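Structure tokens please, single chain.
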Amino acid sequence: MSETSRIDTILAVVVVEEAKAKVAGGSAPVFIVKDKEEQEKIALILSRITKAMAHDLENGVYILVKH
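Here you go.
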């Protein structure tokens, strides 16, 4: 019985303007938006394009993860 490893990858970060200081470095692109409404819209569109899951970290940051 072989063991399989699964690596999840963060594809993008969508952050509201006020929370951009919470995001630094890394290899994923960061999309800075003006408000929560735009953030949800951009996260949804990006998740459809990339076939990834959008996760709300509830601190002004969404991450898009390929599972």
